């Protein structure tokens, strides 16, 4: 298995470049008999799709996904599911500048050093466009999780640069709000502040980072394999594998550094866990509480303000990004993070069934208590 | 490959429980012809070994590693390297309490729910004892990295609970100090404060979290495989796979959330990169700069202060930890984190050679500039 | 990695059903910088294509492959290569009979028992149609092998039912003949006999088995990984993974059972090996001699002569195949076998480079001597 | 995963050389709760053990296996199972001749070319000694298969050089006989002929090939993953991965080449399949019939009769094997082949459960009919 596949039992393989004819992928190992149609995947694809507000890039793509195989009479067959999304908006653009220079903060230099040359059109394989197929595959994982275990995966933008939006236990937090604004913000009262911030940022020509929180509810206890493929380790792998991510936390995360043991450990009563510092994972295995992860996204490196760099010839030069770009890539990252979390959970659900189907646990699951 | 193996080309498989006869592992895929002896691995094992100061658990283990295969006349042969560490200090202890209750913050409950029962002696497979073999395998990875690419991997304790120790660009930072105190602290002037803090903590019966920083120098550009097995994603997987870790950052990490693009992007000049917000990885591929990662470790859950929990019978009860435990597991985590980072880098070095041996990059590597 | 992928470093993933919209696949891990165009793959696809003589099924497919990614300006980029072949000849046929009965010798029953139901249109995923994508992926492997190591992979029909066609050391054997007749027969003088046999067979309504021989020339010594992923073990896996294959041999194969050691062992002189009973593999590693493998293909189970079976209701019934079918599936198997052998060799070439790039062997390779 | 591991869900990793301190391995992914003790594995190890009759090598090894982990209070825990067998009979022998020459038919030359040098003591990693650990791991797989699915795996010597011993449907065939003679021959009346043949062979200084048949009874329908990891393809991989194997057949095997479709296809009635040409596998998935495989083993290359070869210096020389060697390696191969078949079946049993646990097949399994 090379680097463009993820998972062991529920395996997703991705292909495609920003400006090639199409992007696509294959989901292998999906259980048979699940109701699945293209429309089930399109909803999340539309949530990720650019050009839906003035706060994201204006590239226009229908992002219509086709299922090419593995579904028969509306149900998965157990055979691999081929996915295809045609690239439509391949503007005939002059790439001579980007071809000759390495944009700071981008993968231009590293691809060139690894492979000797690179497909420079729109970032090629390193473009965020590739994440559209992940969202489609994540949609299949969500169907699988819901049908087999009643798991629900969703997320929201928890920080936009300096602004913390909200948290599940905060007043004003409302899951229903998340899909009703272009920011994936769970608190409608914060929207004016976010819009003002983004308008000023766009005007300045600069970009900013963001933080996304993803939560899985209803995860049964027992998912995750010690000692390397822990559930949290595989979540970290999947989320750090999203473009622009620089950090991943589970539960208390970096906050645990300054915590005392009495504070961090989640005490247990017959009515459930009294807290969830663990983020739903102990010893690499799910506890049955909500699985909670956060990811830090760096500011877009493609900005209108000039930056120093070198060319293919090694000589000093300057680069300025023109054209369509997200001033905050984190804004559209929520559906992508959900997709990656769903893929990891679906994979571990199947892995767990493979090894432990006949196992009788020693007691009924502890109620999840405080998510 | 199941959950107790890590890597694709340089593959490490681990086995063993805290109180079984031995722990051990297998390193497969190591290049042949490298000089290797048990003494090369023992140095890091001794750094990780408990009982070396009053600040860590008093369990006494020689942790002497034996190489059982894969080395002939002092050189690796290309065959798998079998590693074995006998468990010596298996105190005949009364485990009846731990057998009947789920310790909060521990893997007791999750192992029981996953597997139906568990080896409760000293935490069994979930014990930090298992990490000794990782350190041995990491020692082989370090030998491999040094011989094939001149890479050096090292780390230090960057935070102990509320106390930030030092950072590579801080006054007083000294790599040579790290191995001369029980805290892996790089600044000797901070030791009194750390000792006072730990003495008070131990007296209180509580525990605390910590943060470790690991750095790899000399990493050639080009390591890492887009899009899922990015170098940073695999580092996140490996570090989050260490017991008690709740968060992982690369480069600017969570600090990138509040950064502007002009601030974060690492500009390039013919003399090198002007900064290293990227932490040595762009688009999932190494840049040639220092690879910099940080990990957050939660406070030990085994503390002397009583905590609420339930028993195997589901009834409410209380648990108090007696005996030998680290009040801050993060203190001994530095060699473990180095080992995991080294394993990931060795794996990607071999993966890169496999695909890209004949490739000629378009220019000489950019100097690494600011680490 | 689930069952629809093959390889570790050069990884091919396949998807698609006989009567879905398309079949396709992804080749991941291909080295960058190789000249590659769709035409390079089309040649072998045309060799495998049905309907080119009266001796194979009359289903008509253009089998035109599209490369969707991983190639830029005529060269591979190192990114995954997406492949797509549209299904054209999806006759609107009445599948009610095949839907309700299990055809003997087919995968109908086993798919139904494994997955609970099946895509019964034309065999669905178990159709030989899927092998078209393998041939395309094998074409990429051939390009890779030729460019990186000068390896050439080719094959021929060595037996058609009771008729042995020819062997590389036989009088009349001519590689150039293989592609000039519909049987992949290397000896033109045997064609009348083959045609007569097939005409009589077709008339009888029955089918027959076949044997194909594949040979790789120029394989460098050193490919293959002891002890499980031996080169010959991976070849056996790949060839036994072709539809209808029931046996695989390397070198002397089953003939070795009755051989003496003095007869079998390939003695060595400074001018090369004196024989090739080993089929180019010793201890699981290539010797530098020709790699020689043979595969046994069973007779097509879809025949016009009625056979007993049961229906979905478990009741006894009878099945008769109407319509288009190959009376000898082995006839078109040569390009498929070449493709699978090429995929295994390309994978092991990259795996070997990954582990052993810097190795200096103790002597210059022994000449390959007698292939 | 590198070449010394096999399986995806039930994963076995092997290490060790013929004359190192120990050989061993790790079984990962074994379901928890299975009764397992060292004695369960020792039986097959004793069957494989050399030196038990005059017809096999006189090397004396106790081959006592130790379970180092993964078992607690007599049951598997779900954690990896570490296995260790000390090497005892490491005669201090003069290896200077074997160190300087490449023995024909051995892996000496290929290891040297792959890795640059080799552990020449007794064949090092390529020695059949390594298969002892496979037999131990296969013993765990047998326990798993029996407990979870009632599967039984056993085998016998079906050919010794020119002598066909017996077949399951032959008069005189008796499973109970197999373990009561040194040949694994199922027909006691054939023993004098076998003994005479072997005595003459040993006297001549030459060696001979053999064929082993392995059969799994009670395999549930549904195991195996199309299209590459078919059950038969994975069996071929596992059996071809045994030292000295040159061919593998399933069911009718190479006999299928000359069969007609009417003859080969296994017709089905409500009382079961009417034959088993398929060898229990259709479309890569088990049918519920007996899984039947045969493997061809080449004659031992280590013989007392001199053979031509070259030395490390490339110059012509001669080699004569002195000392302890099996004149027919196939004789002791039966337990090894059983182990490899059991490992593949256990792996596919777990893989199948992972993907298809909730699936309801359309009808009750067809009786297996004629094995």
Automatic annotation (TrEMBL), chains A, B, C, D:
Catalytic activity, EC: 4.2.3.5
Sorted alphabetically, which InterPro entries does this protein's record hold?
Answer: Chorismate_synth, Chorismate_synth_AroC_sf, Chorismate_synthase_CS
The UniProt keyword set, sorted, is: Amino-acid biosynthesis, Aromatic amino acid biosynthesis, FAD, Flavoprotein, FMN, Lyase, NADP
User: Cofactor binding mode, per the note?
Assistant: Reduced FMN (FMNH(2)).
Please give the superkingdom of this protein's source: Bacteria
At which positions is NADP(+) bound? 48, 54
| Pfam families xrefs | Chorismate_synt
- Obligatory cofactor(s): FMNH2
Biochemical pathway: Metabolic intermediate biosynthesis; chorismate biosynthesis; chorismate from D-erythrose 4-phosphate and phosphoenolpyruvate: step 7/7
Q: Where does FMN bind?
A: 125-127, 243-244, 283, 298-302, 324
Its UniProt entry gives the catalysed reaction(s) as:
5-O-(1-carboxyvinyl)-3-phosphoshikimate = chorismate + phosphate
What family is it from?
Belongs to the chorismate synthase family.
How this chain assembles, per its entry, is:
Homotetramer.
Q: State its role.
A: This reaction introduces a second double bond into the aromatic ring system.
Quote the protein name from its UniProt record.
Chorismate synthase
Organism of origin: Thiohalocapsa halophila
The gene for this chain is aroC
